[in-house]
């Protein structure tokens, strides 16, 4: 145990954010650079080194949290980085983007603020990069086997890195023009600067992984042909079909899926555009959906100079404390104020969109909504609560319904789907097609980045075993495992 009295003498501290009025003028990450370093060792000392560390169960990667907390407390950063990488290929991604179910499961969190696990994690990996401790790990020998990975999001990258290090020759196919999947184009720059992705890709290239961008399997390359070219295939194409809102006026100009809007803002940061083709500048913006993607739209609209930003959520506002029916160590539904919400805008709960209203040129101008409530388990509209709000740009951020079938990938492979529309797989992450495996949201459905990386690592073991008859690669989860929720 690092500091036997740490959880008694040290209060919880988290990374400092730059002032909202300052950070909305740029696209840099919202945190004050270096703000964690003066406090992070003491924060790691709050870890109680529990006999049964439930944080392991909260994290699907099985991160060795008490161990790297102990090393961080002692400022043995090299050892902390080694322990961090033992279970997680990309801790700089999870340390910035994961909602930290490990902290919800922290034993200290039963009656005190939990250990700042996420902040300790990102501090360790940032120091590892600064110290040049993150080096390529090419295989000692090649197996002679080839693997194609479809998709370069966190699941695809994790599977590719594991399989490359196991000695297989791996090529990653990405339909976008750059590697990274939703990490590249779905996550705004202010949440994670893309330099973090770029240096990981360079590490993977040095290890031997090949990348093929601008190639969509199913459209540009026939899936069955791809299967014949490689000894195994991993499908990590994500669950990219956005949930739509079929109400009158949906066809008006100015209504877009979040994943139509957010990538364009990122492409400006990549230098592809001077200004995005879809912009919030000077407009009244309405974001439909109260999750993280919706918050990303809010923060992006602020930076583009929106006249106003309103975020709508059909569910009631969550409480700020755990409900009795969401006990520790489950991940609770709490009212969360992200950095984007700190920057302004209005959040409206328990409302449903009835229709959109446009001008004579077919541009959306207003959104009509009504308050809703649950009665006998059903969602009902409250009479007399209808109203309209200005809406010149509307983004739909209501989640995703499954993997893309329009490109022909599912049909060309001949893949079976489960009852939820995801690609079906067995205990080894193998599909019904011999030699074809699936990892991440394509098989699990929309989920968190830690689950995607865990799936990529686990699927890599299944592939390695299929190719060689045995495997020493770790498999942190099974396809049927689910988060600790109620």
TrEMBL record:
Keyword Oxidoreductase: yes
Keywords noted in UniProt: Amino-acid biosynthesis, Glutamate biosynthesis, Oxidoreductase
InterPro entries: 4Fe4S_Fe-S-bd, DPD_II, FAD/NAD-bd_sf, FAD/NAD-binding_dom, Glut_synth_ssu1, Glutamate_Synthase, Helical_ferredxn
Domain of life: Bacteria
Pathway annotation from the record: Amino-acid biosynthesis
4Fe-4S ferredoxin-type domain: residues covered: 38-69
Pfam families found in the cross-reference section: Fer4_20, Pyr_redox_2
Xref: PANTHER family: GLUTAMATE SYNTHASE [NADPH] SMALL CHAIN (PTHR43100)
Name recorded for this polypeptide: Glutamate synthase subunit beta
Provenance organism: Streptomyces chengmaiensis
